Amino acid sequence: MKEQLQNLRNYFNTGATKKYLFRIEQLKKISFALKKYEKEILIALHTDLGKCEAEAYASEIAIVQNEIKFFIKQLKRLMQPKEVSTNLMNLPGKSKIYYEPLGIVLIIAPWNYPFQLAFNPLVGAIAAGNCVVVKPSEFANATSLIMEKIVKEIFSEDYIYLVQGDGAQIVPTIIEEGSINHVFYTGSTSVGKLIYEMAAKKLIPVTLELGGKSPCVIEDDANLKIAAKRVVIGKFINAGQTCIAPDYLLIHKKIKAKFLEILISTIQSFYTNNAALSKDYGKIINEKRFNTLISFLQQGKIIYGGKYDKESLYIEPTIMQEIPTNAPINHEEIFGPILPIFDFETQSEAVEIIKQNATPLAFYIFTSSTTKEENWINAIPFGGGCINNTAYHFTNHHLPFGGIGLSGIGSYHGKKSFYTFTHAKPVLKSATWFDPNIKYPPFKGKLRWLKMILKL
Ligand code: NAD
To answer: Buried-most residue among 109, 179, 439, 451 (CB within 10 A)?
Structure first.
């Protein structure tokens, strides 16, 4: 590993990765490979998570292709040094910000969107001119293997190095070695804390894209049919294993019964009344996660679904209520196809429930009132979110994506990715033809003039 990291450093030091044309060429190589290996990627995602082709294409490949498209269009402009104003004290002079790559970036990815969550930050890191170590999840093995095949085929190992295996063993070795310039981690909050600790010892900056319990509020004036469709797709896509899935619903008492009726009929219209046979419904990643989810099913009253099959790692889309406050399902991120519901009459009642798990990664509000919309956005600190939708904010690369507090540090996507993987290097250029004595000792009698010049 040490030697490999040294090779990456040597390559970075040649300056090759800094050049605009080089970066564009690498991005095009990825785009081309995604087309060439599209079928293999889709098969791998089906093997690992039972994702159907349309879902896998839209939520994994298309997102990466869009990010590449964005950079091919915008990279030249983003890389251009930007002239900014110069303050009175520094006139005559000019101020510029140069955009420098960070060096070697370590990207650590999870298993739930195993392709996209490794390749999307990879695209950003390449666009910003870095060398990269990619560590995919060991739990989405088929996808990790096709990613390795692509990376090895299109990149030299001295530029982009993909390393497989158990994160708990490999990641500390890479970080402790000390030559990484930035760690970009996506995964659970508990592992995120370990990564932060390891990186802190070497003063390595981090971006942490973590998890949490994302609430979804259905107000009494919401369009219930639309809300049901958008809640069901956001919650049950990838069998609920989505970091920004609505974790639980807060439904206004007035419309609760009606909304539940529509919600259940929507689940059936998407996945039939036997989701086990639906080609559009995924499976749980492994037995460990399956067992945790099954334990959640015992912690309240199931009002829809609840069937499961260990052999095929299937859990039916499930709705639960009457969950005791201290039940683990109320405090741990569910990350599976189980949707607890709570009701409320006033906003403050709902806020109290949300506050039990502060700083969610995402927040969703369904309402037709712009006043309620604003009230909700002001009431809850959250990473990002949607009004009258769920999860789709992730797909707009013009919006930075990231958490707050326990759901993460930093953000990425589109131009925010470029800045995440770039050092903004400010430089002041001072003129030499003017050099007033007032700036230099002896200062006796100069303070009054200084205050006048500085307008203080
Ligand atoms: P995880 O934390 O178990 O693993 C993620 C990565 O970390 C893997 O590559 C793994 O090998 C590595 N890893 C595991 N243990 C490690 C250790 N001790 N030291 C160093 N590296 C280690 O996460 P997961 O179970 O793969 O993913 C699920 C979690 O990720 C959920 O909480 C979900 O909300 C979150 N998530 C967040 C986002 C986001 O964008 N914010 C996206 C997807 C998933």
So the answer is: 109
